[in-house]
Automatic annotation (TrEMBL):
One of its GO terms (molecular function) is RNA polymerase II complex binding. Belongs to the SPT4 family. The keyword Zinc applies. Component of the SPT4-SPT5 complex. Interacts with RNA polymerase II. GO terms for cellular component: chromosome, centromeric region; DSIF complex. This is Transcription elongation factor SPT4. InterPro entries: RPABC4/Spt4 (IPR029040), Spt4 (IPR009287), Spt4/RpoE2_Znf (IPR022800), Spt4_sf (IPR038510).
């Protein structure tokens, strides 16, 4: 469980450049992912200092925004499976899949990968 906070993107400047992490759906500017990685899943995604990895592990194809202030108490964060993540902006639905190496690592750790696109396999 993380108690940190993700960088909150500015409201209009560069809004079209925002990207969502394919694993946790956190939304940030690509520069933030490159500078700091993903505060929720950097160990697996390894985006810090890698523009290529940011491109592979995030997407501009997402719907909706959720501002999560208190992840552990938020029913929306629980519904979105982000209650154990840092405070920040999250996408409601993210299109795309994590890279194969990340999917294999999750599998090796006994974690079932569920894409965040709200398909049948994404719902509990």
């Amino acid at each position: 469980m993380s108690t940190g906070t993700a960088a909150i993107p500015s409201s209009s400047k560069g809004a079209k450049q925002l990207r969502a992490c394919l694993l946790c759906s956190l939304i940030q500017h690509p520069l933030e992912f490159r500078k700091h990685g993903c505060p929720n899943c950097e160990e697996l995604m390894q985006m810090k200092n890698s523009a290529d990895r940011v491109t592979q592990c995030t997407t501009t194809s997402f719907d909706g925004l959720i501002a999560v202030i208190d992840p552990e108490k938020s029913w929306v964060a629980k519904w979105q499976r982000t209650s154990k993540y840092v405070r920040g902006l999250y996408a409601i639905r993210v299109r795309g899949r994590v890279p194969e190496d990340v999917e294999h690592e999750l599998e090796n750790r006994g974690i079932r990968y569920r894409p965040r696109d709200q398909t049948t396999g994404d719902i509990d």
